[in-house]
């Protein structure tokens, strides 16, 4: 129930104050909440998995949340790199999470796949499932 509350709060906050304004119109298939596990491989070879939640808004922006690290961030589309590419800026928990990584999202049969890259912090990937409220 707490996770549902956090996701709904994130949606409410971004609807009230969209980050970066209306940068792009989102792919309707992406709009909504998604959850899964991000598996990160650091430059030194250490691998770490953590729960991750994403919310995509109709204006093309979004939010990220990593509950186990108390980190939250915002997603801004990188239109020059093509559809589904976003820069992540961590806004809460900056000391515990890497900021300025680049996500690439791709819809697939098994969910929403993502790859994340950061020159300083390595790479991450995962498959997200749509978060459905009951």
Structure description:
The protein is mainly beta and 134 residues long. The protein has one helix at 2-16; strands at 32-41, 47-56, 62-66, 71-77, 85-92, 102-108, 111-118, 122-130. The protein has an 8-stranded antiparallel beta barrel with strand order 1-2-3-4-5-6-7-8.
Main β-sheet, spatial strand arrangement: 1-2-3-4-5-6-7-8
Largest sheet: 8 strands, antiparallel, barrel
**Secondary-structure element series:** HEEEEEEEE
Portion of residues in beta strands equals over 45%
Query: How many strand elements?
Result: 8
Distance between the termini: 10 Å
Oligomer: single chain
Radius of gyration: 14 Å
Mean pLDDT: 83
- Proportion in helices: 10-25%
> Which structural class do you get from the secondary structure elements?
mainly beta
Shape: globular
Q: Counting H and I runs of at least 4 residues, what is the number of helices?
A: 1
Spans of at least 5 consecutive residues with low confidence: 1-23
